[in-house]
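Posting this for the archive.
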Amino acid sequence: MSEKELLISNDEYLKAGIHIGTKFKTKHMSNFIYKTRPDGLSVLNIQQIDERISKLINFLSQYEPKEVIIVCRRENGWKALNLLNEVTGIKVFAGRYPPGILTNPNLKNYMETKAIVVADPWPDKNAVNDALKIGVPVVGLCDTNNQANNLDLVVPCNNKGKKSLGLLFYLVAKKYALNKGIIKNEKDLKHTLEEFTEE
């Protein structure tokens, strides 16, 4: 696959460690694993990661920003997620997601949504369960140790690293903003990849 066809250069993917999985792997994720390193860590296939991020962007682009929620309990993703919100207007939930936000209109923080993305289906399981109850599609960013039950789309990636999540949220923010006409070209994006991924 030529560099041009990827959303971002192979080098950027490698630098962010988006392909480095865990020592544990589930049967759900075995199709995305390219190899196991001598230290026991599983390595995800970058081409498949790129294809699935493209699918995620195309899927989200069918919705208006206020119709989507992205949830991330893991602190490593919060900064990048808030930048994504700033660029696109997509609703984000950084931190612990209390159950019932999508299902109980009496709650003060009740929200309606047509699609939900979780940064990790395990810590973000409250959001997955709410989405199941109201029947909206769920996209999960999944590492090699994740289960994929109840997910409509799996995006394989290192969903624990700050640089990896930063790169993924940067690509989603940029391409979604372009697709929705929020920015006219890539130069209009006010934030750099470095801002999304810095420690």
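The chain has one domain: 3-197. The radius of gyration is 16 Å.
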